[in-house]
Task: structure prediction
Amino acid sequence: MRLESLRLVDFKNYESAMLRFQGSIHCLLGKNGSGKTNLLEAIYYLCFTRGPRGGSDVSCIRNGKAQFVIEGRFRKEDKPHEVVCTFSSGEKKLVSEDGKIYSKFSDHIGKYPLVLVAPNDIELIWDGPELRRRYVDTLISQTDQEYLRQLILYQLVLRQRNGLLKMSQERPSIDHDLLHTYNTQLISAGTYIFSARVKLVRRIIPVLTAQYSFLVEGRDEQVGILYTSDLATLDFGSELSSRFERDRILGRTSVGIHRDDFNFQLMNQSLKEWGSQGQQKSFLIALKLAEFRLLEERNRFKPLLLLDDIFDKLDDDRIHRLMDLISAGSFGQIFITDARPERSAEMLRRIRVKSQNFQVEDGKIQDRDQNTIQVI
Ligand SMILES: Nc1ncnc2c1ncn2[C@@H]1O[C@H](COP(=O)(O)OP(=O)(O)OP(=O)(O)O)[C@@H](O)[C@H]1O
Ligand SMILES: [Mg+2]
Result:
């Protein structure tokens, strides 16, 4: 799969921009704050119908404007596709594929698989379980559309059930039929989600292990993911019933897959507490590479790979290993941002790979193709 062109109107700091992509490695070069990450975010929008940081759509409209447009032309299995994402403040976001507007965004997720490696990935280790759940959810949703539907349903019913519990704090009576319906829906969706998460963890661990040992050059460091869930040890249905009085006092549901966590492990210890900074970074890159492999295996084509600021955040050893993979043709189309053009030029020259270079300056883009790094 390839992204052949990207057009933006009033997206973040871009008034209007048009990029035509040639070759398979595209470097977005420019000073801090010039708009490199914004371009990656626009590509992410086309694939996920939202930005990567979970920020609002409104904040993506260029200051003082009323609407943004992102348009991407893809080529997938040799067929052209056009994806357009439009958002006007106060209105519903519209996403279309080949002129057909989606009624449910969930139908779009997974069609254009993408893996993003970003500086704030470290938050996956350091932050709370919600971020890890979101990461896993995004990954599974790309390969299993039913998962996303069940997840949306679960979250909706959970909100409704919590609302009912809160309401019942003020009123002595509760609609038991409604509560029963909510419980049944939570059990069904929760069980689906739980088993999909179990499967994902089982599938990803061997791939993660292989990628990690490649990055650390075979050092004997065992990595893993420990999935913890109420549903692994408890009967969800009976817990929902038996905890009813407690949940009513709390005003929320105290059991379910919304409390799951994925503990990243190094040598059977917590990576967060035990791992060095270097080991944590290696784990994250290995995780992203494992994600890439799973998506590739599932789709039988390579996802887009976005590498935001990796030269800045990774040390030389890991960059060289990553570069080895690039030069071995392990990836398809790659978008790399860098604030120091000479550094990425040097990295790519070392591995004798040709790239297309764009100069980004204050929301304006210049194709620096004449400066394209040549194969030596
Ligand atoms: N809605 C918006 N309207 C106008 N400008 C915006 C909007 N949202 C963000 N920006 C601007 O976009 C710029 C940040 O762009 P971006 O994060 O892409 O920079 P970058 O080139 O990746 O920088 P760095 O090298 O520091 O990572 C900031 O100057 C910010 O003010
Ligand atoms: Mg950036």
The pocket of magnesium ion (ligand 2) is lined by residues 36-37, 308-309, 337 (CB under 6 Å). The two ends are 27 Å apart (CA to CA).
